[in-house]
Amino acid sequence: MAAPFDRVRAYVDQKREGEASFGDVVALAEITADSMQAFFASIDTAIYKELRDIADYITRMRSEIALLQAGELQADRLPRAGEHLGAIVVATEEATNAIMECAEDILAAAGADDATFRSVVNDKVMAIFEACSFQDLTGQRIARVIETLEHIEKRVGRFAAAVNPGGETEAVAEDARERRARELLLNGPQDRGVAIAQDDIDALMAK
Amino acid sequence: MALDHAMPVLIVDDYKTMLRIIRNLLKQIGFEDVDEAADGSEALGKMRDRRYGLVISDWNMEPMTGIELLREVRADEKLNRTPFIMVTAESKTENVIAAKKAGVNNYIVKPFNADTLKAKINAVFGE
């Protein structure tokens, strides 16, 4: 950008020592006008390029946002995933209670005569088998929830790549719930291989 | 402290099912006097109203967690000698270390069975 004004600077330096004539002033005005024209031309090109890039970026973002299908996620997939999870909680709770009731009934029948006890055990064991069928349904529901999470992961990943092609990530501020979980060590159940075994816990407690 | 099966036991868990499981297991072991609380703050209130011989608590509860309950209990001179067993799905080494540092008497990781519960209770009472 300095180049257009170099001619002006050179002319002024050349004329600095002597008196300036009208012709010098006109010549300086012409050189300045030429220089300014070149300068503004370069600015126009740079601004145009910037604006063009911004417009392209906005267009690309619009199509990426459309691909996110946020409306569909919010209106359909996420509520359905929530319903599935709610149903899983209810189904497992009902099944557990049913199984426990059977177990309690069997325990309570321990003092009864043999025939009655056998009958109670048979009935309750059958009821336990029936209650265990919850696993099939909850398994299917969990599969649907996983499907939704994968759907979201795919779209968010694509969006993140489009917004930030370099893959640089900004630290996300920790919210109150996350801070509580960190401070109170609310890690939740761990996967096999990561979870510490009861024997190891006993060893730690014994130290 | 000797193990007395007639002593009142307080079990603390935010899952009713878990409370029921632990209550039944305690019954099998021989404890009949069992009270329940759904989180640490409810448990603390009950402990201030009644003297319990043993507290069996989950870790992850709201609003007051098991580790907060344990720290409150150990900081209270009227309650600080109450035996406290943590029964939890929190199975990271840092959890066990934090609980031990806070003064837990024993630590059981879920899922567990009656034998484990019985063994840990016996260990707490030196049986």
TrEMBL record, chain A:
Gene Ontology annotations for the cellular component aspect, listed alphabetically: bacterial-type flagellum
Pfam families registered for this protein in UniProt: CheZ
GO molecular function, one term: catalytic activity
Coiled-coil portions: none
GO biological process, one term: regulation of chemotaxis
InterPro entries, per database record: Chemotax_Pase_CheZ
Name of this protein: Chemotaxis protein CheZ
UniProtKB/TrEMBL annotation, chain B:
Biological processes per GO annotation: phosphorelay signal transduction system
Pfam families in UniProt: Response_reg
4-aspartylphosphate found at: D58
InterPro entries noted in UniProt: CheY-like_superfamily, Sig_transdc_resp-reg_receiver, ST_Response_Regulator
Keyword vocabulary terms for this entry: Phosphoprotein
Family annotation (Gene3D superfamilies): 3.40.50.2300
Protein name in the entry: Response regulator
Domain of life according to the entry: Bacteria
Keyword NAD: no
Boundaries of every Response regulatory domain copy: 8-125
SMART domains attached to this UniProt entry: REC (SM00448)
